[in-house]
Design brief:
Elements: E1 6-11, E2 17-18, E3 33-38, H1 45-49, E4 77-78, H2 83-89, E5 93-94, E6 98-103, H3 109-123, E7 127-131, H4 136-146, E8 154-158, H5 162-172, E9 176-180, H6 197-214, E10 218-222, H7 235-239, E11 242-247, E12 254-262, E13 270-276, E14 279-282, H8 286-290, E15 301-308, E16 311-323, E17 331-334, H9 338-351, E18 359-365, H10 377-389, E19 397-399, E20 402-403, E21 409-410, H11 415-424, E22 429-433, H12 434-439, E23 447-451, H13 454-461
Parallel strand pairs: 6-10, 6-11, 7-8, 7-9, 9-10, 17-18, 19-22, 22-23
Antiparallel strand pairs: 1-2, 1-3, 4-5, 11-12, 12-13, 13-14, 15-16, 16-18, 20-21
Length: about 450
Amino acid sequence: MAKKVQTVFVCQECGYESPKWMGRCICGAWGSFVEEKITPVQEDRRHRTGSSSVGAGNSRAGVPVPLREVRSSETDRIVTGVSEFDRVLGGGFVKGSLTLISGEPGIGKSTLILQAAAYIAEHSGTVLYVSGEESEEQVRMRADRICPELSGRLFILSETSMENIMTQFRKLQPVFMIIDSIQTMYTSALDSAPGSVTQVRECGAELMKAGKSNGIPVLIVAHVTKSGDLAGPKIVEHLVDTVLQFNGERSYNLRILRAVKNRFGTTNEIGAFEMGQAGLMPVENLSESLMEEMGDGTEGSVATAIYEGTRPLILEIQALATPTPAGFARRQAIGADIRRLNMITAVLERHAGLSLSSQDLYVNVVGGIRPEGTSCDLAVAAAIFSSYARKLPPARTLIMGEIGLTGELRSVQNTDRILREAERLGFAGVILPAKNAAKADRGSKLKIQGVSSVAEALRLIG
């Protein structure tokens, strides 16, 4: 009996399926629906539930077991040999886990993955590297540059068919598998093209089943959209255990690996790398590296701090305020959230008395870092004020704090560890919210100054 082909319309932005075409999706996107034909296949219960939990042998499929008898996989990890990569993962790849890594083309994803694959093949066992975008020769050329001495247990497969990949997977029985990239893979069970919503979702689920049923960690590479978001349906992000973002500015050698989801480690943990001729080299002391070129008392330049994952990070914020030659002022930011910049500008005009409506404002986070959170608000405001008023900020002074809409300063987290890092790097003082200053360690050599509002902070600075 011929299989009945079903036609659905799928949103390319969020993966929402509709039996009929819609002009606007429930996610708000216009004109994002495409027609896709789905051929029903025999349902496999393991496809949805997996044949075991993470780490083969932890439990039997469909049979409840006491939780205390389940073996923890916390110590059962495969290290990559790249210290910053292992830091972001939480110590290495957990067996049976599914990891998704995304980043712009040419940023260094394949280089980082190949370095990890070469180390795992040499120290842990067979590794299967599936490349759907490059040939075996192209991958070998990269390997000759970054790891000339290759282990015989690192296998490369240039293939896009999931059926063929699973056949080779069962033959090799690797300890680690890489899929580069998920948007190039397809299964013959579906009529849609590779990279479509249904193909990405089906291939992702098939890889999840293979990894969890065999206790094999699987690393999936994914493309990003023009806005920097992960391409494809959001369901892929829900399927995987870990989501990593690899980014950086092309004008800098610095690359940042960030964990935005991690079921086996700390979220928002970051790892730093420097791109060189021999591949990506870990940067152990990121704060010191970022502050090397910062001058003392430079107009429009302010030092601030954030807490990423498990470590404090010292950053340099630069701002430039200049009279606008056009009819309306421009606001541009590199590394900072433009919406946050507009809010800070409005607060400065309303509560600090600055006239910025006729000023073009440019803000840059030096080093290509994109800090998360709001602890850099006060530093951005201080850098704008320094450039606008032509005032030199206090030398070797750290400035941090979150700005509210009423001009008040809100406290930030993990200030004690940040202050210790600032003292280690040779800073002389720190300006921070009054609540944080009241709880700060008075045994510190830093000159700690607490402020309660943006206006008070700017008076202290200028």
